[in-house]
Structure formats: C-alpha cells, structure tokens
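Example 3.2
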Amino acid sequence: MKKFEIIDSHAHVFPGKIAKKATNAIGNFYGIEMKHVGTVEELKKSAAEIGVKRQVICSSATNPSQVTAINDFIYGLCCENDKFVGYATLHPDYKDIDEEIFRIVERGFFGIKIHSDFQEFEIDSPKAVEMYRKIAKADLPILFHLGDENGSLSSPTLLRKVLEKNNNIKAIGAHFGGYRRWDESMEQFKGVDMYFDTSSSLSFLSEDEVMKLFEAFGIDRFFFGSDFPMWGHRDEFDRFMKLPLTNGEKELILSGNFKRLFNI
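Structure, written as tokens:
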C-alpha cells in the first residue's frame, strides 16, 4: 500500500483546564458523542496514529474578549511543535482588528478560522464582511465553518453572496462547503473560486454523494481534515481511503493541494 504524506487541515485544540468543558459543549451543540477530548496530548496521539506530518490547529473566540488569549495560545503551541500550523481567530466586534491582523501576520499564522454559529454573528453581516476585507488585504485565507441544522448564521447561500461581491477573499469552505447542507453547498459553490475540506462529512455522505461533490468542485480544491476532537484521525483517514480515488487524487487531497496553496 502506498504511503502518503498527510496534512490535517482542520483540528481544534483547547487549554488543558477547559478542554473537557469545551469539547462537551461542541458535542452538545451538534448532538454528537465526543470520543476524544481536545487537549494537545490527545491531538498528538490521534494524529500520530496515521502519521500526520503537519497539523493545522485552531480555536474560535466565542466573544471578542477571547481573541488575544486564544491567538497567544495557538501561537505558543506552534512555537513548541514544528508540526503545528496555526489558524488564528477573530471576531467582528473585536476592538482593534487591524492591530490583531498585524500580529497574526507577524507571527506567521497560515490563516483565520471563522465559526459564525459559535461566534453568534451572521456570516454576511456588514461588520463581518469588513473584517473579511481586512483579512484579504493581508493575503490570509479564511477557513469558514459552513452549514448547520441549528440555524442559518453560516449558510452556504449567505457566504456565496459575500464572495460574489468580494472576489479577493481566499475562502476555504469547511465540511465540503456545508455541514448537513451539502445540497445547498453544491448549488451555491459549484464553479466558485474557493477551497474545501473533507472534515465532519464522510460519516454522513454516501460514496456517490462524496464523488459528486469532488466532481463539482474539483479534486484540486480539497484538503483532508479531521475536525478533531469531533472525530479521531484514524477513523477519518480510513473513511477517506475507502473512496474510489486514484493514488494521485488521494495525494492531492491529503497534502498536495494544501502545499500548493500555502507554497510549502
């Protein structure tokens, strides 16, 4: 069996003292039993099971006051472990977005993670769009959580409207562009210049549905993502490897596309 280089483009991690509480909150929100806790130690252990070479880590500020502390935490982990790549957090109501973006760029973060459901703002709100414009000016990609059964704050339809008016935003649509709203994702994002990840989707989509999404968006637009601690790396990797893709296509999704976008 061919050995692939693996970059996990989407995982969450929390400080040890709040990791269990934060993990349980995610599970309760989505109605999913969490089999892992989002500590650094458990993340490392899970990623090591499939030999992840690089691991994107992130966490969302559910209120503006958390932005600086979370970004300091993620940055510190990246300094301690050269396998970690950081996505920073921002919030539309943060007091000085320009200054924080400057810090984010200076510290070498690869992008920004937005989860408008947890952060409680509409993904197309004027304040949010102004924040995206500033992020785009800094040439940073934005990983958007998209899709939800619990509401429409992160609906693919809303983000499509944003991207139509702001084509310089480098968007990455998590969860095949829309968790539990994959039909909407297909309708809204086919032909759109953006990227996607495979996280939190392979458990729910049929093989045929997955392949149709790959065909609609393009294999060269996808990154492998675990969404740890929602799922363990071994389970997500095994689901991915069962898909009827060529070795070349698997290689692109597991690492090649990510390396190309970030020039690494």
